[in-house]
Amino acid sequence: MEDYAPSRFKMLEKIGEGVHGYVFKAIDLQRQKPVAIKKVALKNKFGNISLNTLREIKTLQLCQSEYIVSIIDIYPDLTGLSLVLEYMPETLYGKLRNEVEPLSRQQIRKFTLMMLKGIEYLHNMGIMHRDIKPANLLLSEDEKLKIADFGLARLHFPKDENKVYSPQVSTRWYRAPEILWGSQKYGPAVDMWAAGCVFAEMLRGVPLFSGATDIEQLALVIRTLGSPRLNEWPDINLLPDYDKIRFPKAVGIHWDNLFPSCTHAVEINLVSNLVVYNPKNRLTATEALSHDYFQ
Length: 295
What we know:
This protein has 295 residues and is α+β, with helices and mostly antiparallel strands. It folds into 2 domains: 5-86, Phosphorylase Kinase, domain 1; 90-294, Transferase(Phosphotransferase), domain 1, CATH 1.10.510. Helices cover 32% and strands 18% of the residues. The protein has helices at residues 5-8, 51-62, 92-97, 105-124, 177-180, 189-204, 214-225, 255-258, 265-274, 285-289, and strands at 9-18, 21-28, 33-41, 71-76, 80-86, 90-91, 127-128, 137-139, 145-147, 154-155. The strands form 3 sheets. Strands 1-2-3-5-4 form a 5-stranded antiparallel beta sheet. The protein has a 3-stranded antiparallel beta sheet with strand order 6-8-9. Strands 7-10 form a two-stranded antiparallel ribbon.
């Protein structure tokens, strides 16, 4: 880490604000290219080294994929660290909010493919992202999609059955049901649920489940998918918060009715194989990539 950075990078404007810091657009004077500079705190509110910051840096340094945003440099500044990242002018969130130009079928397929390839890469590296959502999927000018924001990323050890993770992760609308029911022993399947929700949102133009609280979020999932059945998800009654609240019995909504504009059954089939209660029954990223939708 060198402290030449402030003279090498010319700050332009603030372009974003995440959970863990501000993002600015800047010019890399050495390469004459725009970059994004994310300012992150080195210490948390208790004065300890911020684990989220360390995880984000470590993940970005580990990952070399065309579907993961790349880190160019790191330098210390007055408040903590500045991460210099490749500049991406848009997010999938911004694209979805553009009502004038809704996404075309080709764009949806292309973005879903790139998102799944990025997730497959992470899962093969043993990394759970834990915050897949449209705002964390960045788009270049030529519409390449890359996964960003690794403040919640964690290494996953499938052989360590006692490993516990925080249930306070991922943005509520994209949070898997096992986490909503308080599970601390979850795996990469939480990213697949989120990916299914993002794909569904691209197809529908509006989020699949947009609860204002965790309980409302679960109620929306149950109303949509129907009440979970023990024969389909035997472990459900082992989840810490499963018995804490009773929801009315629901039969669920037929997928076709949730996607009235979808003429292709393969799109709905892919959603229905990702947005599944039992994490063991969700497609993995590799399985999703070989789905008929992409053939």
